[in-house]
Design a protein that fits this description.
Blueprint lengths: L1 H10 L1 H27 L5 H24 L6 H6 L2 H35 L12 H4 L1 H33 L1
Helix pairs in contact: 2-3, 3-7, 5-7
GO molecular function, one term: transmembrane transporter activity
Protein name: TRAP-type C4-dicarboxylate transport system, small permease component
InterPro entries: DctQ (IPR055348), TRAP_DctQ (IPR007387)
């Protein structure tokens, strides 16, 4: 039971985080609108929270899309390639994902270190800025993990039908 729950959580980690972030963002925006309507004042800090949450939402959503194979691709061409070419394309795609998101991870960590060393605080809430910046390397690593999972899944599908055809 616990193993199944942990498995479900791992498979739906990004969606769960995104749903929670969207809920928090919607509640903050709603409360801000109500307060502004009733008092003619607004909570300026809410924009900071919403923008920070949007960065997490974007990267976690990207990771979820990688895991489910929902990113735009050249599926039409890919499916018409011979199996060895599809495997080469999969490896090259994964290498590009690692290059792009590995670079984001590296520079994100570099920026976090700078923000910690300089003790940079956010403007409105004066929380450590690295909390918002953490979304970049964290989301990037998650994208790379999900890209690997998707590639392994695709390779598993590639091997499955060929064995069935060979036994006929």
């Amino acid at each position: 039971m616990i193993r199944r729950a942990l498995s479900w959580l791992w498979d739906h980690l990004e969606e769960s985080a995104c749903a929670l972030l969207l809920l928090v963002m919607a509640l903050i925006a709603f409360v801000n609108v109500v307060i502004r309507y009733l008092t003619n004042y607004s909570f300026a800090f809410t924009e900071e929270v919403e923008v920070g949450a949007l960065v997490y939402l974007t990267l976690f959503g990207g990771a979820a899309a990688f895991r489910r194979g929902l990113h735009l691709g050249l599926q039409f061409v890919y499916e018409r390639l011979p199996r060895p070419a599809r495997q080469v394309v999969s490896v090259l795609s994964l290498a590009l994902v690692f290059f792009v998101f590995g670079t984001l991870t590296y520079y994100g960590i570099f920026q976090i270190r700078d923000e910690m060393d300089l003790e940079t605080l956010s403007e409105a809430l004066e929380v450590p800025q690295w909390i918002y910046t953490l979304a970049v390397p964290l989301g990037s690593v998650l994208v790379m993990v999900r890209a690997v999972e998707r590639t392994v899944e695709l390779w598993g599908r590639e091997k499955g039908p060929s064995k069935a055809k060979e036994t006929r």
